[in-house]
Amino acid sequence: MSIALRSLLLFGVIGIILPCSARPATAADDQSRPRARDLGVVVGVFPTGPFNAITDVAGVRVGHATIIEGDDIRTGVTAIIPATGDLYTNPLPAWIHVGNGYGKLTGSTQVQEFGELETPILLTCTLCVWKASDYLAEWIYSQPGATEHTVNPVVGEINDSVVNNMWASPVRREHVFAALDSASGGPVAEGSVGGGTGSQTYHWKGGIGTSSRVLPDELGGYTVGVLVQSNLLAGATLQMNGAPVGRELNKYAYQDIYASSSMNAINKQDGSIMMVVATDAPLDTRTLGRLAARAIMGLARTGSVAENGSGDYVIAFSTSDAVRRKRESDKPFPTAALLNASMTPLFAATADATEEAIYNALLKATTVTSKRGRLAAIPIAPVREILEKYKVLDWDKTLPPHSHEVTRPTRHTVSADGHPLAVWEKSAPGADEAILLVHGRTWSALPDFDLQVEGEDLSLMDGLVAEGYAVYAVDLRGYGETPRDASGWLTPGRAADDVNIVLEWIAGASEWRTRPHLFGWSMGSTIAQLAAQRQPGNIASLTLYGYWHNPDDQYPADPPGLELAREINTAEAAASDFIVPGSISEKAIDRYVEQALAADPVKTDLRGLSDYNALDASQLTMPTLVIRGEHDPLAAPENIAKLYTRIKSGNKQWVSVPGGDHAAFLESPRAYFIDELVTFLKDAARTEQ
Asked: How many percent of the chain have pLDDT more than 70?
């Protein structure tokens, strides 16, 4: 590959850069154009995810290849990789909804027959779908571990012939591979990129757009992300948040009839739009079909009427481990999907995110010109004036405050050997010390460490923030918003290595006064110990709470043929750690159960317990605090004594929490627990300095 081509690939653009007078706008031009929220266009009441993109759904990745060649090729490919792991052996539940079926969507019949998605999704131009399908299959077979089996490529399209010669077969192997290989999480390029390079939206340039919504914890805390390839042509009239933008700009449907003398009259009708809806809510195929239908409602709000010649398709899928199944099994495969009664908030989130994604596609798109025609970007200043005129901006500022104001932690994605780890952060202003919290065996970080209950202070993260710390909590593989490992399993050794990767990431996130502190609860205590033994230089101190392990125990190797259990978690299991009567309110227990089951409906499969044979407290030379609740049945006093005696640190402490059990930091001894922990952390920081 030439240096020039390699450079173009880095920017997702493949082809010949045209002279300035003829070439489309550049990525730099795109950066100067606003998204909908930059103008104050707020759709609905639910907040967005951190990127306001489909990639806010954990594990979803997006890549583009933009093809600009000669004077008549203006097209591209957009790739959506829906989840980590082998999509063929562990497909995702999915559905395809057809709003108006004038289009060429490959793979649709099998998705509707099986209700499963087994490949990435590609979006390209109408006459490019078949070659793109071939190249997608080739890419799948080129992946490590791929075997000989059939695949069902899902490739959607729009007709971009206003500026693109799609009859020239412009999409080639390198374009498809570039889009797939560049797919990543985080912000998504929008507008005239990838499969949206040559598209139109109403009377202006269209393109790729994306948006997301996050439900409040009371409604499950689920995320919905939408990506659109918008090619809505002139058979309808643009509306934005209810404002008649198209009419105000004198470009509207049937203008050739009602304003035949107008210089702006356009007789072009029909069009297409591909809508991809991703969610981490545990939905089965049937409820995904219901969800997909609501994207059409968001589309309609923008002015579309699904013209006779329009191809309007919705591909919806769920990334939740609770509903992701093996491709083959001789036994019933347990899943845990939401009931119909829980769907309404997800419907609203889908409609809102679809509407906003279309606005983003329109606003971010830049003018594209070829010898075939010209698609002009919508003018921003007049649009802003119209939106102000109709008073449809900044609607979020007119909403009353939530009855229980919750500061939701910031979600970061940390790559551990290519696997995305969800890391949550809450930080005090000016914090100069950081601590990482590692959760237990069954439940992930947020139910354990950031439980929010109206009228009660139960969040350990909030408690430590109040003491001036930057607080981080990691979802280990298969927990919360971190996808399962490709193998389906988590091992203690893998978890410990991931913890060290997160610690190194935290250390580089700011100029801390000390190295990060490390806190592990229950199973997290043994993971934290293993991490501390492997890389002791990563931490300033180690806290082990609810330590369950007998230091004299040795674990055998895994038996051959061990199969994933995928055990469904239960409300009884979620409430089982609250042992001391009256130490926590029934409301708080109910909230914990609700939040825990929403975050972790399926128990993560654990193997490789023989990794624990390497646990050796004599290797703990850093300041170490051992905490045990007075009534904790899982942390046997004799095991704690063995652990404590063998720790070689010159600064070690053992604290017993009066009246506490296995979840003392969530119960009435919470203040005592935090006070003892903070006292130790301050002492350890002095030692560090």
From this structure: 91
Site of tokens 């932690």: 409
Nearest of 661, 614, 653 to residue 633 by alpha carbon = 661
Mean pLDDT of the chain: 89
- The rounded distance, in Å, linking the Cα atoms of 633 and 81 is 44
How high is the pLDDT of residue 291? 97
Find all residues with CB under 8 Å of 503, minimum gap 6, and list them.
436, 516, 518, 531, 535, 538, 539
Q: Which helix (H) or strand (E) holds 11?
A: none
Taking the CA atoms of residue 662, residue 666, residue 669 and residue 672 in that order, the dihedral angle to the nearest 10 degrees is 100
Tell me which CATH homologous superfamily contains domain 3-327+347-390.
L-amino peptidase D-ALA esterase/amidase (3.60.70.12)
410-688 CATH pick, 3.30.2350.10, 1.10.1520.10, 3.40.50.1820, 3.40.50.150: 3.40.50.1820
Given this model, what pLDDT does residue 17 score? 31
- Of the chain, the percentage scoring pLDDT greater than 90 comes to 73
Q: Give phi and psi for 525, each to the nearest 5.
A: -70, -40
Of 605, 608, 414, 617, the closest CA to residue 494 belongs to 608
CB 588 within 8 A of CB 666: yes
Question: Containing H/E element for 473?
Answer: strand 470-474
- Token duo for residue 248: 């105000």
CB 315 within 8 A of CB 156: yes
Catalogue the active-site residues: 272, 310, 312
Question: Token digits for 606?
Answer: 């654990």
Strands 116-117 and 92-101 come out as antiparallel
Pair 240, 228: CB distance under 8 Å: no
Domains of the chain by residue range: 3-327+347-390, 410-688
- DSSP bridge partners of 410: 425
The two structure tokens encoding residue 544: 């082990």
**Residues 531, 496: Cα–Cα separation, whole Å:** 5
CA neighbours closer than 13 Å in the CB half-sphere of residue 299? 35
> Is 689:512 a contact under the CB 8 Å cutoff?
no
Whether 23 shows a pLDDT value over 80: the answer reads no
Name the amino acid, one letter, at 34: P
Give every strand in the sheet of 652-657, ordered side by side.
Answer: 410-416, 419-427, 470-474, 434-438, 517-521, 541-545, 624-629, 652-657
Whose CA is closest to 266, among 374, 124, 366?
A: 374
